[in-house]
Amino acid sequence: MNKLSWTDFEKIDMRVGTIINIEDFPELRNPAYKLTIDFGEKIGVKKSSAQITVLYKKEDLMNKQVIAVINFPKKQIANFMSECLVLGTVKDKEVTVIQPNLLVENGLRIL
């Protein structure tokens, strides 16, 4: 495993956001959702594709807070432009979304 310096870690911009819209993403081989996430007034709204359908139904995620990396370059996924990466733990095809355990302000930075 490669070791990161503190300077490397500080380059990763992880923020808290609230999922405000969820759509199925049937164009992909592996089931996924299209997420619209509100990161607050300063950062705004970003979109992400997430393969989190094994453990979550859309109604389980609506209005829930998640943690995402927001400073990756945009990535074209089929006909969708993903603007951030929602973080989660992975075991086989089961992804557990990382969420704050208390409601916090959207846009707060994770350190």
Your description of this structure?
The chain has one domain (12-97): OB fold (Dihydrolipoamide Acetyltransferase, E2P), CATH 2.40.50.140. The protein is mainly beta. 12% of the residues lie in helices and 40% in strands. It is globular. The strands form three sheets. A five-stranded antiparallel β-sheet has the order 3-2-1-4-7. Strands 5-6 form a two-stranded antiparallel sheet. The chain contains three helices and nine strands.
Keywords:
single chain, OB fold (Dihydrolipoamide Acetyltransferase, E2P), 111 residues, 12% helix, mainly beta, 9 strands, five-stranded antiparallel β-sheet, two-stranded antiparallel sheet
What is the CATH topology descriptor? OB fold (Dihydrolipoamide Acetyltransferase, E2P)
**Relative helix content:** 10-25%
Through-space gap between termini: 21 Å
Strand share of the residues? 35-45%
Q: Whole-number average pLDDT?
A: 95
Strand order of the largest sheet: 3-2-1-4-7
- Domains (count): 1
Structural class: mainly beta
CATH class: Mainly Beta
CATH superfamily annotation: Nucleic acid-binding proteins
Could you state the oligomeric state of the chains shown? single chain
Biggest sheet character: 5 strands, antiparallel
Tell me the radius of gyration: 14 Å
- What is the N-to-C order of secondary-structure elements (H for helix, E for strand)? HEEHEHEEEEEE
Assign the CATH architecture: Beta Barrel
Low-confidence stretches: none
